[in-house]
Design the sequence.
């Protein structure tokens, strides 16, 4: 039988991939506090229970940005009784110089357990393992060196973007410049929580959405281009020679939406209709450099939303933020009609993306009456119901 004190964590060191357990064990030789961290993690895995209590610590001039962690096993692991996390706003696109990385490492080793997480789910650089006193000292030194504290709680969270035009040929706008502008504009909302719930911006330069803006933000900003793509027929010929015609058809042509592109002859691609073509990126990557983005690149808001998005965002805080929902998720849950009724906005035909595909429509006012003794009441907007004619009157 093994004499290891962390048999469950040891399993995470097996296999071909790097292991955070191996890294922490190596760090524990320099930072003894990490040994106790591993001990509590092993206990959590064994008991299937999280032994951390969480709250927020406010640095001077800030309303958030530090996630306080208190161990419930302080008697067994006293060195991690306080093991706080400091959120630091990273450079746009997570582009660091070696100097800035050394600064973060030095501050992390000086005030915390020397553990850096690059990056958290929100996009912050995280310094893990400081106690309350050293957390305030670390915050002061970070600010002296030009760093800023990220958002937490019911605030605008730290903005994140892909690397954009700094490296990627598919980027349709300067994501890093846009992120810097938005951060500077809304920095007060980021530092001082004033919302009932968090709000996130994420920026992606193209439809590949490397910043996961659709899945992980309330306001995704994605670049696109107008018109058809550009085709270099000479490169098409080289591409066909290198990969074969079958590869071109199965991996390039088949990925174009609306069947707008076809393979002509032995070495040419053609677009059937510029109006039919929809900007997609996956196919361009498969056929690069023979196919490239169109020259007219920018940001665009969908026609479905551009005429009323400001009204929705201004009036929806009561229904979305207070109930902890993303705006889009909330609309999907309750239905657009119920949502508009709740926020007091009149329906508009421009809000309809396409005619309904389901011919069966449920009219609540024509439904059977309530069972005897069941009280009549106005349905809540949360229940995805429409008021009956009697209730509306």
Sequence:
């Amino acid at each position: 039988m093994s004499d290891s004190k962390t048999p469950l964590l040891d399993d995470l060191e097996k296999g071909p991939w790097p292991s955070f357990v191996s890294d922490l064990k190596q760090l524990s030789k320099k930072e003894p506090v990490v040994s106790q961290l591993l001990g509590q993690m092993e206990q959590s895995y064994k008991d299937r229970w999280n032994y951390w209590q969480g709250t927020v610590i406010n640095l001077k001039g800030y309303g958030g940005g530090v996630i306080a962690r208190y161990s419930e096993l302080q008697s067994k692991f006293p060195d991690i009784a306080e093991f706080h996390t400091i959120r630091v706003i990273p450079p746009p696109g997570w582009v660091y110089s070696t100097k800035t990385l050394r600064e973060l490492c030095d501050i992390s080793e000086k005030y915390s357990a020397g553990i850096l997480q690059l990056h958290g789910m929100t996009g912050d650089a995280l310094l893990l393992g400081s106690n309350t006193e050293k957390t305030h000292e670390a915050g002061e030194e970070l600010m002296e060196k030009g760093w800023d504290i990220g958002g937490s709680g019911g605030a605008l969270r730290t903005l994140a973007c892909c690397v954009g035009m700094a490296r990627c040929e598919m980027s349709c706008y300067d994501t890093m410049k846009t992120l810097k502008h938005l951060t500077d504009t809304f920095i007060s909302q980021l530092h001082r929580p004033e919302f009932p719930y968090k709000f996130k911006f994420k920026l992606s330069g193209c439809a590949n959405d490397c910043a996961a803006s659709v899945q992980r933000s309330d306001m995704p900003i994605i670049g696109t281009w107008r018109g058809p793509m550009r085709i270099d027929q000479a490169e098409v010929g080289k591409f066909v020679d290198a990969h074969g015609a079958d590869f071109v058809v199965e991996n390039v042509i088949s990925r174009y939406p609306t069947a707008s592109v076809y393979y002509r002859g032995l070495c040419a691609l053609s677009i059937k209709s510029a109006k039919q073509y929809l900007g997609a990126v996956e196919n361009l990557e498969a056929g690069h450099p023979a196919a490239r983005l169109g020259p007219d690149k920018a940001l665009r808001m969908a026609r479905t939303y551009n005429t009323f998005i400001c009204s929705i965002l201004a009036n929806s805080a009561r229904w979305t933020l207070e109930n902890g929902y993303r705006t889009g998720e909330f609309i999907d849950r309750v239905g657009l009609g119920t949502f508009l009724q709740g926020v007091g906005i009149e329906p508009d035909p421009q809000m309809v993306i396409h005619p309904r595909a389901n011919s069966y429509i449920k009219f609540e006012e024509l439904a059977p009456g309530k069972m005897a003794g069941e009280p009549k009441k106005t349905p809540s907007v949360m229940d995805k119901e429409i008021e009956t004619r009697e209730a509306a009157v």
User: Anything to note?
Assistant: The CA atoms of residues 115 and 304 lie 45 Å apart.
